[in-house]
Specification:
By secondary structure, the protein is α/β, with parallel strands linked by helices. It contains 11 helices and 9 strands.
Length: about 300
């Protein structure tokens, strides 16, 4: 992973070249890279958390001045109980997944194997149409100020054989730099090219990157509707966006009410700042007993 100040076209071209190599690596090499990232992040915990504390301090002042929402501030903090450990465990969880593209089998056998085939149709005698999995190529991912997202995306991209260009929220700049430097060092000892995961730190490169349809295959904006709309309106590259979220929980009339209450309360209060925190409670009317939620 590299922190780059190259031109947008150079960034995209380097990612495209790296994606070609990454797409041919067997799963053992990609898994080794995830092991190296996990180990390096574990060893660099104090350095990364110190950088994160700088971001939190600046964000706290911005929140006090009314320039930043409390929900963003809470998402910034890697010292929140369980957040650091969850980030590291997430890398191991991704590593343990089956190879999504089956590259190892494809490289060790002549032709494609059944593990790669997701659909097969006999069109005529001796003529078979197969749908097989493969990496997308180069992803441009624009996301919010959650520092752990870099590790999440890097792990998923490497596992799936895709290169990624990342742009995170400015509120987490120090955290992003510390994490990306650590990941870059880890990848240096693996078969995964450093340019396969790149971090850009300035907002002004986004518009130019959105013009790089020659090299970038998919844009994924993770944030406000305004960001998603802007992205769709300013690029010819396919965009994987989203609509307004509506996080609901439904209580069936046959559900255990005691358990239901605990689940409902946890789904909202465990981490209210999370984007998947429950917003709407739905229940069958009339329900045999009222749901007595804590005040």
């Amino acid at each position: 992973m590299s922190v780059t100040d190259s031109s947008p076209e150079q960034i995209a071209k380097a990612a495209s070249v790296a994606s070609s190599k990454l797409a041919t690596l067997p799963s053992v090499d990609r898994n080794d890279a995830l092991t190296a990232i996990h180990r390096s992040l574990s060893l660099a915990k104090e350095t990364i958390l110190a950088a994160n504390a700088q971001d939190v301090a600046l964000a706290s002042q911005a929140a006090a001045d009314g320039q930043l929402s409390q929900s963003i501030l809470k998402r910034l903090d890697l010292n929140r109980p369980g957040k650091w450990d969850d980030m590291l465990q997430g890398i191991l969880d991704v590593r343990a997944l089956d190879d999504p593209v089956g590259l190892e089998e494809a490289l060790h056998h002549s032709g494609l194997t059944n593990e790669l085939v997701t659909l097969k149709t006999l069109l005529d005698d001796g003529l078979v149409l197969e749908r097989v999995t493969c990496p997308i190529g180069v992803l441009l991912i624009i996301f919010e100020a959650r520092p752990e997202v870099i590790a999440n995306i890097a792990a998923l991209a490497i596992k799936s054989g895709n290169a990624a260009i990342l742009k995170g929220g400015k509120e987490s700049t120090a955290s992003f730099l510390a994490i990306s430097t650590t990941i870059s060092s880890a990848l240096g000892a693996t078969a995964v090219p450093n340019a396969a995961i790149q971090l850009v730190t300035t907002r002004d490169v986004i518009a130019s990157l959105l013009d790089c349809d020659k090299y970038i295959d998919l844009v994924i904006p993770r944030g406000s509707n305004e960001l998603v709309r802007y992205t769709k309106e300013h690029t010819r590259i396919p965009v994987l966006g989203h609509a307004d979220g509506l996080c609901s929980i439904y209580v069936h009339p046959d559900a255990d009410l005691g358990l239901s209450v605990r689940v409902v309360v946890d789904s909202k209060l465990d981490y209210p700042a999370a984007c998947n925190s429950v917003e709407t409670l739905l229940h069958w009317t009339p329900i045999s007993q009222p749901l007595h939620l804590p005040s």
